[in-house]
Specification:
heterodimer; A: 308 residues; alpha+beta; 8-stranded antiparallel β-sheet; 4-stranded antiparallel β-sheet; 25% helix; B: 186 residues; mainly alpha
Chain lengths: 308, 186
């Protein structure tokens, strides 16, 4: 079988296998979601990394566009700084107004730690928040549901992905650590010798050869005491999102769930707490440090309970 | 017309964006479904991509390249959802009648070949599946594939080649299996 045969088979297969139409209701959901807000300013969209510039020739685009974009942003910042300094003594400097975060406050939700966020919070009319319950065999939680989070669950963990900010929240029971030589997107190799207690796992994390881990600090989450650390890749490690292998797995929640772990530039803010003798990890992951606050807003609505 | 709609959407015209979404959502869903091999995940990926498209539509500077930009958002979204595939195990069930209809309408591809290709695709990592879908389903040139995947053209070419070789190996291995089984039995 030569490559042309494979190409032909694939083209035929894709043509036959592709659905002819989108599922009912999908367009309506998109229109409803998008009707709640307006597009963000161009400079912010560009900063987020989704620009599409004019192409004049089809070659050599990938690397140069990213560089050009970075230089453009740096130049804009430099010009802005010059303008502010130059105009500072005399005329009034131009006001560049960033989007004002407008967190939809809820009487049921505790106040959110004041932290400036680079990512805009949704400013459109939000749907009424409602309390949603989730339970595993060992623990349960309630959280305040909002329209901006996509929620996925298994029998062992629950995950939240924000539609508007690049931030993921994953909450699960620590079952095993993932060997430093493994990754989670393929079959992970687990280190069952690592104690799955809060202190035992933190001790393992601190010695991890590929991770930088901050000193644990005492926090509370869901009304319970927890230890919090920030986890990032050590300099020189390379786990790029979107390629395979893409992510260094560090904590495993079970067969039908996910492992978590950092990619390049990503910070995982992990809170570890003991609930009924098992260690629960509350993980907020983002490549934009400011966006971690968006995840915290969700976490602060959580109340934990033990499963009877 | 699409160019005008993109310009209007950039001005905040939500109806214009809705028309753009309506015109592209079927194709986006097909691409996501082929890459993720999962209908639910594909729905989520398309929804995320279109919501992000509305949010960031002012990032489109060349209005004629809206489609390419949208595909880029979709591919990123597919990667995110592919990484979370383990969260749910989906068992696909297909009616026998559907299979028969398929074969009747496509004699060039047998049920066995179709199963072999489906199995082979599932074993590929998402980035290779994406490259194959862009190349062979959308029929894009390599530089267009590279542009959407945000990688150099040479990398796109090698990615497509690697995926094609992996598929060929999978098909050939599957083709050998019945003989080996027969040999062991005998």
């Amino acid at each position: 079988m030569n490559p042309n045969d494979v190409d032909r088979l694939l083209a035929t297969f894709f043509e036959l296998d592709a659905p002819r139409q989108e599922p009912d209701g999908l367009l309506e959901r998109v229109v409803t979601h998008t009707s709640r807000r307006r597009p963000t300013p161009r400079w912010l969209a560009t900063l987020r990394g989704t620009p599409m510039t004019t192409r004049t020739k089809p070659f050599g685009v990938g690397m140069t566009r990213g560089l050009a974009g970075t230089l453009l942003i740096l130049a804009a910042i430099l010009l802005l700084a010059i303008a502010v300094v130059g105009l500072g003594g005399g005329s009034r400097p131009p006001q560049v107004a960033p989007p004002v975060p407008t967190v939809a406050a809820s009487p049921a939700a505790p106040s959110v730690a004041a932290s400036p966020s680079a990512a805009p919070s949704p400013s459109g009319p939000a749907a009424s928040p409602r309390t949603v319950a989730f339970a595993t065999d060992a623990w349960s939680l309630t959280y305040l549901d909002g329209p901006d989070w996509i929620v996925g669950t298994s029998s062992r963990d629950i995950g939240f992905e924000n539609l508007y900010a690049p931030v993921f929240v994953t909450i699960g029971t620590l079952e095993a650590a993932v060997l430093p030589s493994s990754i989670y997107v393929t079959e992970p190799e687990l280190d069952r010798s690592v104690p799955t207690t809060v202190d035992g796992y933190l001790s393992w994390l601190e010695r991890h050869p590929k991770l930088d881990v901050t000193d644990p600090v005492d926090v509370t989450v869901g009304g319970r005491s927890a230890k919090q650390v920030d986890v990032t890749l050590k300099e020189g490690e390379n786990y790029a999102q979107g390629s395979i292998p893409s992510r260094l797995g560090i904590a495993w929640f079970g067969e039908d769930t996910v492992a978590i772990g950092p990619t390049n530039g990503e910070t995982h803010r992990m809170k570890l707490l003991d609930i009924g003798g098992v260690t629960v990890i509350v993980d907020v992951a983002s490549m934009e440090p400011g966006a971690l606050a968006t995840g915290e807003e969700l976490i602060q609505t959580i109340e934990f309970g033990e499963r009877s | 017309v699409q160019r005008d709609l993109v310009a209007m959407a950039q001005e905040g015209d939500h109806d214009a964006f809705s028309q753009l979404a309506a015109g592209s959502i079927g194709r986006l869903y097909a691409v996501a479904r082929l890459i993720l091999r999962d209908g639910d995940r594909a729905e989520d990926a398309v929804q995320d991509a279109l919501v992000q498209a509305w949010r960031d539509i002012r990032a489109v500077r060349d209005l004629d390249r809206f489609d390419a930009w949208l595909h880029r958002l979709l591919i990123r979204s597919c990667y995110r959802h592919a990484h979370r595939m383990r969260r749910r195990t989906v068992v696909e069930l297909r009616a026998v009648r559907e299979e028969r209809d398929l074969v009747d309408s496509a004699p060039e591809l047998s049920i066995e070949q179709r199963d072999q290709i489906a199995r082979g695709l599932r074993r590929l990592p998402p980035d290779q599946r994406a490259a194959l879908v862009l190349r062979h389903y959308l029929g894009l040139a390599l530089w267009e594939v590279a542009d959407i995947l945000e990688i150099p053209v040479g990398t796109a070419k090698s990615r497509v080649n690697r995926a094609t070789n992996a598929m060929r190996a999978a098909l050939e291995a599957d083709a050998r299996e019945p003989l080996q089984a027969k040999g062991r039995a005998g």
